[in-house]
Amino acid sequence: MKAYALKQRAVYGLIFLGLIITEVLIALYLKSGFIRSYGGDILVVILICCFIRMFFVNKPKLLALWVFLFSVAVEVAQYFDFVKLLGLENSEFLSILLGRWYSFIDILCYLLGCIIFFVAENLFKKINKKAH
Questions:
Q1: Rounded distance, CA 98 to CA 92, Å?
Q2: Each residue's pLDDT tens digit, 14-72
Q3: Sign of CA dihedral 118, 124, 127, 129
Q4: Which own/partner pairs from 76-84 qualify as long-range (CB within 8 Å, at least 24 positions apart)?
Q5: pTM
Q6: Could you give the angle at which helices 63-79 and 104-131 cross, rounded to 10 degrees?
Q7: 68: which residues sit within 8 A by CB, 6+ positions away?
Q8: Which residues of 80-93 are buried (b: 16+ CB within 10 A; e: fewer)?
Q9: Alpha-helix runs per DSSP H in 30-103
């Protein structure tokens, strides 16, 4: 079972790395458009799920739901301009990381990303069980 867990961690790690690179490329080269506006938000929750799965291969079972709830909490914090409330508005890095602009559409993108992760993960588990 350890070899299987190690393989799973490697798969999640590679997906995580690929998503990090994709997110950076989106941030650097796309200044507007659908992918810049929405694609990054969809991918970021998948990225978070993969990061967590690198450490917890079998748990938690409702990871996509927890990541979605976390994402909503961050978005609500953006609504209240949490960065400014903390006095960190002069930090460009933290302003980008935590976000400064609330958008309900972002919540829908997070939901879509979490659904994609949940469905893909369950499909891969079914395929993997049939292969063994």
A1: 10
A2: 999 999 999 999 988 988 888 888 999 999 999 999 999 999 988 778 999 999 999 99
A3: negative
A4: 76/102, 78/102
A5: 0.88
A6: 170
A7: 45, 110, 111, 114
A8: eebbeeeeeeeeee
A9: 34, 40-55, 63-79, 82-85, 92-98
Q: Which residue, among 32, 42, 46, has the nearest Cα to 106 in the 3D structure?
A: 42
Query: Whole-angstrom Cα distance, residue 130 to residue 132?
Result: 5
DSSP state, 38?
A: I
Distinct helix (H) and strand (E) counts, the chain? 7, 0
Report domain extents, the chain: 2-131
Tokens (6 digits) for 9: 């961690």
- The residue among 34, 26, 105 whose CA lies nearest residue 71 is 105
Nearest to 44 by CA among 118, 125, 112: 112
CA 107 to CA 92: how far, in whole Å? 23
Which residue is associated with the tokens 């490329």? Answer: 25
How far the first Cα of the chain sits from its last, in Å, is 12
